[in-house]
Records
---
Amino acid sequence: MGSLFREIKFALKDRIVFICLIGVALLSTYSLVAGLQESASEHAMIERTNDLVTQDRQYNLAKQSDAGGAAYYSFHFAYDPPSSLAFVARGVRDDLPWKHRIRMLALEGQIYETDTGNPELSKIGKLDFAFVAAFLLPLLSILLLYDLRAIEIRNNRWAFLSITVGNGNRLLLSRAALRSGLLYISLIVPLIIIALFSGAGFSGTLLVAAAVALNCVFWCLLAYWVFTRIESGPTTAAILLGCWFFLAVAIPVGGKYAVEKSIKVPSGGEILLMQREAVNDAWDLPKKATMTPFFERHPQWANTADVTKPFEWKWYYAFQQVGDQTVEPLSQSLRSAIARRDKAMGLVSLASLPLLTERLLSQAARTDVASFQRYESCVRDFHQRLREFHYPMLFGEVEYSLEHMTQLPDFKPCL
Amino acid sequence: MKKITTIEAENLSITRAKKVVVKNLSFAVKQGEVFGLLGGNGAGKSTTLLAFLGFLTSTEGAARINGVEADVDPAATRRAIAYLPESANLYPHLSARENINYFLSLAKVKSSADDIEMALNQVSLAEEARDQRLSSYSKGMRQKVAIAVAILRQAPILFLDEPTSGLDPVAIDEFNRLITKLAKSGTTVLMVTHDVYGACQVADRIGLLRRGELVGMFEATNDARISVDEVHQAFASGA
């Protein structure tokens, strides 16, 4: 214990180490507070939008006299609220939509017709804790560790130190471990404090702390392995920076390129266009062309009265659904390709600890691709519930009334 | 009482970068003796020292400390050694007292504040400088702090590499007196130097190294120190 305090005191007396650790703590705090503010602003936006959409729905419903109009003017706000740990990692939350305004029209178009915020900003990305812990932490480790042995050699102190302590490399290992430990503490203490105050889950915080520790230990051991073999500080730094570039840039970027080349993903725009064409074409097609594929899915309505008028709501909503059915294979293939790409990137991350750390943090923060897909599936389930509520009224099984409309499904996020 | 051998080179040969730097070197230093290894640049004296410190492996023969081969168990042999390099730059962000405390703690040696003050007095480090960071010290002052560490370690064997380099003449005299005193108290000293005068002032025996081989041995008697002229002549004749 005495030697631990001795080395802590020794390390902190070094101004560069001290300034670096303070800088890391500030950077960590900034990234976490920025993440927390982002989450708070999303929560506020959800609450505000939800209220507005609900008021708008109630206002419009009061004016409707039939089921078709009621379904047409009933908008619902679907959203994926930020998790209690979302402040840790933005993940794909800036790239993929986490909020939608849904009604009982064709769903696919509504899912892929979305505003993702400022696309230029999402391209640059935000400085979140995950980026600091996954990609900047190795650079800071290199900064603190690359010169540990070289400075002793340069100052003609290495032999003196080794003779004094008996085994100089063992002392350097303990110094490297201590500096890495201090770096870790500077990074993780703000996280723990903010997690405690914001009520983030214990297991999630623990997972984040463990993933960051793994990254920290890896760079400590790698730096030790290199600096005990190379006498020159600049050469050690160059080798370690090369390792960082390879692990934190080349593998993730190269892996992403290879994955995107090998797994083709249909674009959401393509789905939107195809679905709109299918819906628009339906206006000019015989009613039977719409109703037959619709009744294949809903045989319980097959015996209801034929569509004879130029416009009937049941026909209108049927061709909305048929529009969805038309793009179903493409939509399914999009979702499955995104999942396969994500799985492939998971394999790539096994060769890149920074990428793996970032993925683990996004997973803990529920801002990863899997969480996005869960949300999308939640929206699809909700839309299905909307259809199940409206169809009996449209096909005359249940009579339309404002009282019945009070049972209209409400969107509840899937957690 | 028969004095035991603490430092011994037996047919020691060392090859570095395919070049034989030390060739068939043999000598032994007994407890309490000050042995000077003298030679010009490239004579192999620092290589020999590094072998005793356990940083180099012998190609043939052995470098032993208390009978243990230094390259076989360096951690064990280093426990008995204190080492003073040429121009030791101890930690510039610590003061003299902090540096001493730090190094003694690394060596697991317990010394009181009085012991530390006594050692700093012995090396004549100005009192007002003792709490200043070493970054403001001259080369000679830094060397004095390193000497104080070596003294306080109380190791039975002391290796010195050009120890008076950077010291002023007064400090050199004080240092020589200190080495003599340590030797009298039983410390064995091996000093590597190219300073003929300095070596003759303090050494009981001097081995002259040339191109990795021991080419001469000079010994002080009870009545007289080693003759500077004699050593200088031998040193210069091979240059």
---
Amino acid sequence: MTGDDLEFPDETLDGASAPEPVTPDQKSEVMRQRFVHGMLRALYSQDPDAREARVGRVLAGIGGPGLGGRFSPLRHPFAAAAGLLVLGALVASYLVFLYRPVPRVDALMARAMSAHQMQVDRRYEVNMQLRDESVAPMIPRRLDVTLRPGHRFLVETRSRFGAFRAGCDGTTLWLQSGMLPEQVLKMPLADAPLLNKQLGGAMDVGYFDLEWLLGMLPKTCTVTVIGREGDGLVRVQAEGIVGIRDGRLRSAVLLVRESSGVIERLEIDTAGAQHMASKVVFSYLGEVVLDPSEYAVPK
Amino acid sequence: MQDGVPTGLAATIGDVEPRDLFEILVRENADMVRAYLLCHVRDPATVEDLLQEAFLTAWRILDRYDRQLPFGPWVRGIAAKLLLNHRRKMGRSKVWFCDEESMHVMEEAFCKLQTLKGDTFDEKLDHLRVCLEKLNAVQRDAIRMHYEHGLQCKEIATRTGTGFEAVKKHLQRGRAALLRCMEARAVASGAPS
């Protein structure tokens, strides 16, 4: 056994250990904190595969194969038939074990909402398909978008005119072109639909408010869990119409990480002839750490 | 002990294979023992080693187990002794949070956990999930960032734009609130307060 660190109290419990607990009350308080600490660690590290491996290691350690492992079909004339029955039961049990019901849609959406309300910065690659790819060659199809709850987002992309950045600090929307970085266009977020109209439907910032979108989907769409997909992801389908600022969502497909609730992929089919994009796809790149000032209007 | 099987167990369980019975006990209690060890030990690999050792010791001395009593506290007691032995092996004298008096408090907390509604350990954790939802947003975010996303206090402070000490306070107060909430649910389940 190596690598233990019993002598180093977890840093989050340092506060409880200063001054060092000597009285029974102080020790009791620290142990109560540690109890919840252990429960939380257990809660967030649940892994069915690791659990099976753990049980398997214990059983290997006691030298037995586990349930059903000692059955001998030669002990009784009917043993072969019984063996088949046992085998069938084991296969059935195994299949039952393999089958895990998909999460309830309300629970999954609540988990997703909770994850996307956390004050962390999440980066997505956003790809757009336009209704008519020939009409707006200057509009970039790929964006790097960083989102943070509270209407804060940062969009970075390149077009044929150079780099382009847009952002919002929660109240003020701003745009900055790489060609004229000293000229920053800014306006209240509430005026974003007007800007979008002027840009011919190319800048619907409503898509960058995932928190709001996740709240709206169950209210206005038929949301269904389709099934598990890949490594711990759950596919969710939303059908219906959601007004997103001046655009409209017709349907959406979400891939949600079951353990964390993080949206790892979001495909939005838009509706409305005025809207330039026909499809918007978010692909999750991971968490990043942005200084809060990154969302603010550049000075 | 015959053929590696504890004699006491073999004598009392009739036709059921002792290993099969023990497998059921391991499946029922492994998560709880792991949580118990996670309370004390930071390194996950050491937790796995101690858990393994606890159940293997339980198997070896299974004939000492009083079947009138629940298995969980018994195997937890073995894990506690292994923890204390491990501390002695480490040769550090300042491991105040791992003395017998402190571990008695921990054992009480686990006994109370057992009184919560739910048959499996995961069902007991459902109470913690409910209590997490009742925390205020600041405490819940701090706890999720630390425990779910593995961020240290300094990183949380950077992300949330708060101070290091403030983050630690949020975590401490969050944990205290969670414990109060779970205790209230245990009382509601009929456990003595």
